[in-house]
């Protein structure tokens, strides 16, 4: 862990957090996501500070694990390829399994799986460029 670029990991987590804000906003997929997820979301009054704080913590954990998987100073093509692999083939595919059993829509899976695919591509971009 000592050889990993902690600043790059932090920036990667921040980019993920910023992507989520845009991805799930009305400007992109927020309205569709709200419509599609409305029936399946647990109802509650999760405080925004808790929701955003926990979400950022998970982004930081994911970015750290991804950086560990890549190793120190990964070449950009390697980091991007692994970002696509992790986002689309590990995260989105795993979501797909859960979404099938939960009877969630294919469109909802595309939105959520797409977010995580782009998230890990951003992780790869930051970690592949910042040595």
UniProtKB/TrEMBL annotation:
Pfam families: DUF1761. Coiled coil: none annotated. Keywords: Membrane, Transmembrane, Transmembrane helix. The chain crosses the membrane at residues 6-30, 51-71, 83-101, 108-130. This is DUF1761 domain-containing protein. It comes from Povalibacter uvarum.
């Amino acid at each position: 862990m000592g050889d990993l670029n902690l600043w790059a990991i932090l920036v990667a987590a921040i980019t993920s957090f910023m992507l989520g804000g845009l991805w799930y906003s009305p400007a992109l997929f927020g309205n569709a996501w709200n419509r599609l997820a409305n029936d399946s979301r647990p109802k509650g009054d999760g405080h925004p500070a808790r929701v955003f704080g926990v979400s950022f913590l998970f982004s930081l954990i994911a970015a750290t694990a991804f950086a560990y998987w890549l190793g120190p100073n990964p070449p950009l093509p390697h980091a991007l390829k692994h970002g696509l692999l992790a986002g689309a083939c590990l995260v989105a595919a795993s979501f797909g399994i859960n979404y099938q059993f939960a009877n969630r829509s294919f469109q909802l899976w595309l939105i959520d799986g797409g977010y995580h695919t782009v998230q890990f591509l951003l992780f790869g971009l930051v970690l592949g460029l910042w040595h």
